[in-house]
Design goal:
Largest sheet: 2 strands, parallel
Structural class: mainly alpha
Shape: globular
Order of helices and strands: HHHHHEHHE
Number of strands: 2
Strand order of the largest sheet: 1-2
Helix content: 40-55%
Distance between the termini: 64 Å
Radius of gyration: 17 Å
């Protein structure tokens, strides 16, 4: 099988548009549930970089992009191997508002950037294996704060 070199962004976007006009593309599944299956401990979330962080970090699934990227890559790869055309970044809570729970507001941009980079690397590896283009969807969920409280 001949494997093509990685596509540039504009070519990939054009190919995505063409693919969507021809068929239904498959999106990956839940990241949070797959992370829960790993049964990670506090130290797993901390890694070396955040070993002495003054707050609990367990449950900050987005932080795993930095502290356990191989675990996140394995989840992405499993979805790709199962047939996903599009994988979502592990950045559901990578906003300054959500990261404030952990005192990590300053990490929001880094998490988004590294989450996209990791997902793209997983897609590129899958493409290199079989030549089938894969796509990354950046994800941000709702914040964990109420925007307003109406009387």
């Amino acid at each position: 099988m001949t494997v093509n070199p990685p596509l540039n962004r504009s070519t990939r976007l054009q190919l995505l548009t063409e693919e969507l006009s021809r068929r239904i593309l498959i999106l990956d599944g839940g990241m949070g549930t797959e992370i829960q299956k790993l049964r990670l401990a506090e130290k797993d979330y901390r890694g070396e970089r955040f070993a002495s962080w003054p707050r609990d970090l367990k449950g900050n699934n987005d932080l795993l992009i930095l502290t356990r990227p191989s675990a996140i890559a394995e989840i992405h790869t499993a979805y790709l191997d199962a047939g996903a055309d599009i994988i979502e970044t592990n950045t559901f809570n990578s906003t300054r508002v959500a990261m404030a729970d952990y005192g990590m507001e300053e990490l929001a941009a880094e998490l988004c950037r590294e989450g996209a980079r990791l997902a793209r690397a997983c897609c590129d590896a899958a493409e290199a294996r079989d030549g089938k283009p894969r796509y990354v969807a950046g994800v941000l969920g709702p914040t964990n704060r109420t925007a307003s409280i109406s009387p």
